[in-house]
Amino acid sequence: VTAPPLKLGIAGLGTVGVGVLKLIDQHGPDLTEKAGRPIVVTAVSALDRSRDRGVTLDAYRWHDDAVALAHDPEVDVVVELIGGSDGVAKALCFEAAANGKSIVTANKALLALHGAAIAEAVEAGGVTIGFEAAVAGGIPIVKALREGLAGNAISRVYGILNGTCNYILTEMRETGRDFEDVLDEAQALGYAEADPSFDIDGVDAAHKLAILTSLAFATPVDFDAVHVEGIRHVTSLDIAYAGELGYSIKLLALAEQTAAGIEQRVHPALVPLSAPIAHVEGVFNAVVADGDFVDRTVFQGRGAGAGPTASAVVADLVDIAAGRRVPTFGRPVASLVAKPKVAMDAHVGPYYVRLMVYDRPGVIADVSAVLRDENISIGSMLQRGRSKDGAVPVVLLTHDAKEASIRRAMAEIGGLKTALEPPRFIRIQEFT
Amino acid sequence: VTAPPLKLGIAGLGTVGVGVLKLIDQHGPDLTEKAGRPIVVTAVSALDRSRDRGVTLDAYRWHDDAVALAHDPEVDVVVELIGGSDGVAKALCFEAAANGKSIVTANKALLALHGAAIAEAVEAGGVTIGFEAAVAGGIPIVKALREGLAGNAISRVYGILNGTCNYILTEMRETGRDFEDVLDEAQALGYAEADPSFDIDGVDAAHKLAILTSLAFATPVDFDAVHVEGIRHVTSLDIAYAGELGYSIKLLALAEQTAAGIEQRVHPALVPLSAPIAHVEGVFNAVVADGDFVDRTVFQGRGAGAGPTASAVVADLVDIAAGRRVPTFGRPVASLVAKPKVAMDAHVGPYYVRLMVYDRPGVIADVSAVLRDENISIGSMLQRGRSKDGAVPVVLLTHDAKEASIRRAMAEIGGLKTALEPPRFIRIQEFT
Q: Distance between CA atoms of B53 and B60, rounded to whole angstroms?
């Protein structure tokens, strides 16, 4: 091979950064064949040079300041694996673009919060940014939406975008254990962070969804338009009821083009067992894209971890090394069009509602009256047995109803004398 | 946009060709944004100019001889949608490459039988060939293997590659009807051809598998190395037994790197209900690729039809229009290395065996003795009831056994006096 190597400067040497070093080390000759030129690491930056990472850094130029990679003449491409929507990661990416260096990143927060600005900087710098690793780990979904499905108008993109939540919900269903208990275990196993809130409160999935939305609908990334709910309030009781009714509870991330605009939402949902994402279990992720010509496509794989993330990073590097360029969100920034967002209150769909009530005459009549007054019709109801203390769960599945009506009804039902606790509701997603 | 348009010459105006015309017509401005230049059809060729296809051809140059597209100065890219491994389709592709025109094709037979020669011609001509549409219809699996998973050594690639067979097997399971009956229906619905043998005898799936094998294992396409069996001998009785035992019967197409070489095989298989392809139903296709860094990835979608196939063709066209080039099988032809093939007789795995025997003392003893002599151990056995005429089905699941041993044992059991008909066997695939 006579072509000059593609020289990488890697910022951040956590598990993913080390995974990238290992992949390039193990598959070097193969990557050279695929890319038409060698891909070599020339420089690195991390917080602590001396930490034992199981790999030797002696051959690489070292920078205490990651942003210096953007100015290193021995670096063609900056691989940003620091993370975080602002600070060093952001500075490094903008600086790299301004200096004519392409970027590969796994940083979903950065893209979700500053995607349009990044795309502009990249375009102005005449470079490209690869962010396959930022969404759904090893699943090549960014490539699928930017390139593989380029012939389609996408009407809906959705999936399971957070492996931590999917692991917890899967374990809760399989073992009947409670959320807190399973979260503790997930933390012990390394599937959940010490501070798990980004994952379990839905923020991580929302970052990824905002990026997918931009790719699918040719609109600037708009993280603030995403309705975000996590899984803390999901109980194993609800999971068991859902199962009886033919549903699985998943943390759904969904963006849809509706007549009123684009709906973007992350929340627990009852999905029918026939849905393509119903059988995606444990730490696996899945993305479904519905296109007008291709119809339904489904992509599954590991959404996190050193190996899958390194796989995604290196795929982007091979593209860059081979001279394959794609606009950041699949088309020039000037072609991205802001579209109306649909507020969650305007969402219409069926709902799962669970009440805990005193089992007294008239309870159901009271509840039914509240729902009737909000124009919510009941599709089915589940009530069985009678507990010793007189408290019984009642489960209702509604027909299509407006979110605002459901919320008002819930507040009113929660105020009934017979209600033992505020009623819980979980949206049902039918994927018609 | 000031960039010059990419000019297409389309050969073959069947449902897929017309689908491509419609897609480009409907999404023209969108494709221009994505590709950075317009993609326009300038010339077409088909058998009959006057046939009503629901689209007007007036704006295009017409060629009675498809090969003439390769010489038309108004054609940059030849879109070959004629089909067939030889004849006009082959001549057109080689002629186009020799004339410096890139090619996009949906022709799996051509690639499966002449893949290496095509790749050489394309490389020599300094052009590219896109064949996303040749494998698994609208699923961007060629892109995934050539680009998205480029960082991985692939250990195994498998899936459901023929929608006709999957439709038939799904219908047989859901309705309990027989093969012939469901095939008739599939023909009436347009899911099966008038001459369905290419599909139901496994040839179509084998073509696609041979292509996937080359992409996954960096080896020249070797269609002759594929073991090919279709679904004609699958009965609804076997499907029902499989279901009872926790399996679904699918037409499996699988290529695997083993210690002895590469195994490539297409045959009906019992797959556990927990397998990623077990719930892929009807005309849908699925491909699973196992990579060393990414682990398991799964891709699902429609494997045929005008819309999905046009989607794949146009994705390739956008890549070419945007100047994105990929070597035919992901790397230069000179880097493809022929690897040892594993004969089917050397295959080792568990087997489902169904016998029809006279229910007399000693039958099981006779059968067991044959299996013991061939070193085949039985994992479980299912025999129940007794029929009026004394004939009973006996189902055995074996532990890992060698195919050659199974075949000898089957022949011997078929010769037993108590055997009513030759025993049937179907391989079990556990996906460990």
A: 14
- What is the count of residue pairs from A and B with beta carbons less than 8 Å apart? 187
Residue B208 is among the residues annotated as catalytic for this protein: yes
pLDDT digit string, tens, across residues B190-227: 889 999 999 999 999 999 999 999 999 999 999 999 99
Q: Is the ipTM of this complex over 0.90?
A: yes
Asked whether the beta carbons of A137 and A309 are under 8 A apart, the reply is yes
Tell me whether strands B295-302 and B284-291 are parallel, antiparallel or unpaired. Answer: antiparallel
**B91-140 pLDDT, tens per residue?**
999 999 999 999 999 999 999 999 999 999 999 999 999 999 999 999 99
Q: Which residues contact B410 (CB under 8 A, 6 or more apart)?
A: B353, B422, B423, B425
Beta carbons of B105 and B94 less than 8 angstroms apart: no
Write a three-state SS string for A333-384. HHHCCCCCECCHHHCEECEEEEEEEECCCCHHHHHHHHHHHCCCCEEEEEEC
> What's the pLDDT at B185?
94
Looking at the partner chain, which of B151, B291, B300 has a beta carbon nearest the beta carbon of A276? Answer: B300
- From B90, B208, B250, B341, the catalytic residue: B208
Q: Which two tokens stand for residue B318?
A: 């956008």
CB atoms within 10 A of CB A30: 18
Q: For the sheet with B39-45, list strands across it.
A: B61-63, B39-45, B6-11, B77-80, B102-105, B129-130
- Summarize pLDDT for A163-195 with one digit per residue, the tens: 999 999 999 999 999 999 999 999 999 889 999
Of A23, A138, A294, the CB nearest to B308: A294
Burial string for A105-117 (b: 16+ CB within 10 Å, else e) reads bbbbbbbbbbbbb
User: How far is residue B377's CA from residue B396's CA, in Å, rounded to a whole number?
Assistant: 10
**pLDDT of amino acid A323:** 97
